[in-house]
Amino acid sequence: MANRYELPLDDERTVLREGVIRALRAVPLYFKSTINIEGVTITDLFSANSLLGGAIEEQTIITLNEVRSIWDPDGKWNNYSFRRYPESFPDVRLENNEDDKPLIGIELKGWYLLAKEQEPSFRFQASAGAMTVWDLIAVFPWHFSNVISGKPVLEAPFIEQAKYAADLRTEYWESRSKSAMKVEHPDIQPYPKAGSKYSDVVHDDAGNNFGRIARIKGLMDTWVSDTMRTPLGGIEARWWVQFFLLFKEDCNEDKIKSQFIKLAKNAQYDSEKADKLFDYLQSIKNIL
Question: 45: number of CA atoms within 13 Å, CB side?
Answer without folding.
Answer: 29
